[in-house]
Amino acid sequence: MAKKIAAVLIFILLLFAGIIALTQETDNDMPFIITDNEFDESEDFFYYPEDKKILPEWFKGARWFRSNAGGMVLEEIPSRLAALRNEYALLIDFAEKEELPEYLYPFYDERYFIEIRVLYENGEKSRAQWIFRDTDGTSRLAAVFTEKESANDTRTEVFETEEEQDRRSGGEITAGLATNNTKKNSVSGFIEVYDENSFLSAEYRFFQNGDRSRTDYVFKNGLLLSSSVWLCEENDGGAEYEQIFTDYFRYNRSSFLRSVQRVFYKDSEVSSLDDPVVIAFPHGIMVAARERYSTGERLNSYPEFFGNVSAGKDSKMSYSTDERGRILSQTFYDAGGKAIWVIYNTWRDDRIISSVKEEGSKIYLAEYEYDSGGERTLERNYMNGVLERVVRSQGKTDIEELYLNGNVILRAVWEDGRKISETRMR
Question: Are 79 and 91 in contact (CB under 8 A)?
Fold first, then answer.
């Protein structure tokens, strides 16, 4: 029996010795095969098997942060539940093409990575921001959408979490949007498109009433040369953008903005509320990422007292500015180049304290007073030197008085833009 056991042990030892010898003999002759999922550990890339895209070092997974109302990153939070305990929480993740809202589909480029930032307020989704980044991490597109419930209809979700997608797994997804039989949400927001140098080249705006606009920008040597505004018009063939006007910017040798000329390409009604003038503009993505939706600094230099303006096709509006970009004068020309009227502004720091409009034999004057916080508290309106109107403001309340021969003939009280009372004086 002992001899049989010894024979078995000898056989096993000889078998292992043969295997070791075979391995040593063939080690130098075996081919080196690089498989699809192998990479050099010294490189800053890793392989993403789903779409065969190599991801750069700055690409990270889902992260949660404590935030503020503007969506600013304040502090990274290790878990979703801990982050959502804050008043504002921010989720930063990367999305696939199929998750894009329909508005962003025309801008998709397979070379870009899609970053999604979802802001939560008290645990509920407030808004979503989408950022397209190139391989260097440079932002090429930034978009923000907000939703507001309107009427009973189909609702469009701008973004869904993975949990929400799992709950409706197996359902049909059309153009990356989830469809639910609830109330319809009216989407508003903007899309900003940047070139390879981070200069803003186009801006799209979406309004809750369904209107859309587009502004195209032209830069040279870091200066904004022109901006063209287009409005989306519905027609039998669908919807297309029509050019409304273009602003041309001129600078002095020190690169200070000195004048702006607006050329109208379509008949337009210009009012005190609809005629904002761009006097300064953040050309880069970092400046535009401040805590606000609007990217342009805008100033209304056209008082309501001066009335509306019907700007016909090929008419022009010219603005002269000082070295701080403050509008000093505003001149309106008809299509033949004839000056119709001119407005002169007087400034104190960053506030207009008076505006004079000269139109033929009529001279309009608007004077303003402000409180220590810069809020307008008083407006006086004169026609050819005669007082016609006074408006006193305090918070959301405005008291308007109309004058005739130096006497108040009517007093109206406005609350948050709505007239709540009107009294005729005897």
Answer: no
